[in-house]
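Long-time lurker. I teach an intro course on protein structure, and each term I like to show students one example going from raw sequence to a predicted 3D structure in token notation. This year I'd like something fresh instead of my usual example. Would anyone be willing to generate the tokens for the chain below so I can use it in lecture? Attribution to the forum is fine with me.
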Amino acid sequence: MKSEVLNALLTARTLFDTARRQCLVRDRHIASAGLIIVQDAVELVLYACLIEKGVDEAKAVESFTFDQLIGELKRIGLAVIKSGTLKAMNKQRVLIKHHAQLAEPAAVRQYYKASLLAADSLLTEVVGKPLRQVVLADAVSGPELKALIDETTKHIDDQRYMEALIATRKALFLAVEKDYDIRKWEEHDPAQGTNLLLGVGNKAPYYTRDNTWIQRNVTNPLDYIQLDHERIHIEMMELGIDPTEFFNVWRLTPKVYRLSADVWAIDMEPRTETVATENNARYCLDVVVSILMNQQLRKRLVRSPDYRSWKVRLIRSQPLLKRAALDAEHQGVTFVEGDSCVGIHVVSGFDGKEQFVRVFSMPTEARQQFFEGYLPLEACELEVELPQRSSGALSPSDG
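-- Reply from a regular --
Happy to contribute to a lecture. Here you go:
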């Protein structure tokens, strides 16, 4: 498949996803807006098929009208089913866009369904797959997620709908749920203090990130996932996903938990069998792929500096301070000259005069305790550390 064809189809799929909720409502204004989006999606599919067939090399297909696109496809021997309905939809789009006339919601629903059927039929003939499979196979980045989406699609084609729901939930786990995994706190001893790095990137409710809570409440592997529903709502809205659709998939698919690279725990309920239908399998797959694609888009938009840290070497003995102040309470740890640790910030003190290095130390064979606090900048020498390099030995003395 040509790269420009793939780009066109990815855009068309996004337009279909955007129009889905608008085309299936009873409000005439929303439905009319949805019809305009659907017509654009269909036009992109027609255009992509002509490019894939090389017609653009001899003709200026970008200047074709909607009806001319359909006519050219028929001329080269490609059947465009529902072509009469598609042409009627295009005329309705003109009435909406250029004459401010509203479409009837019932008609819009039929146009939406006919458009999907026509696009899938045409693409199956041109690229060997319907629109949904073309996008799912090629749009998702990351080999593991791509493989799960491809696996789901094959299960649906083979009418193995329960297996499809499980594979879809695995993709949702890797995309969203794994950030709510509290398993790593199971072995953490609170007596060693708070390990800030342990919680980096974790979104589970704070009270669940405790080994005592885990011992009392986690009775099977699936319990390691502790969703923060309010945070999920916010996260989905930031991605442009209706939170209701996330929780629909969450309810319709069996719970899963990744025990190791190739081993998954699965929770099957009696009611799960009732949802193993083609309609539910396709719906869940559509929602999860939308989440994945929106996550990818959001990641491409994010700009941040490369990670760096400092290797902090003590040039004199210094107790670790709880706050950025010379008179702050000591943390119970004293560094001696030559000791080193990792620095992540240089900040001003509360008086605005002194500067302090915020440091931490990971457990080592010699010391099992994790600690974090502040050291006066004047007591330290800083050396920039690149991510691939070790941050050195950590061996302060107790104070």
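Some talking points for your students: The chain has three domains: 3-132, 143-301, 309-398. The radius of gyration is 28 Å.
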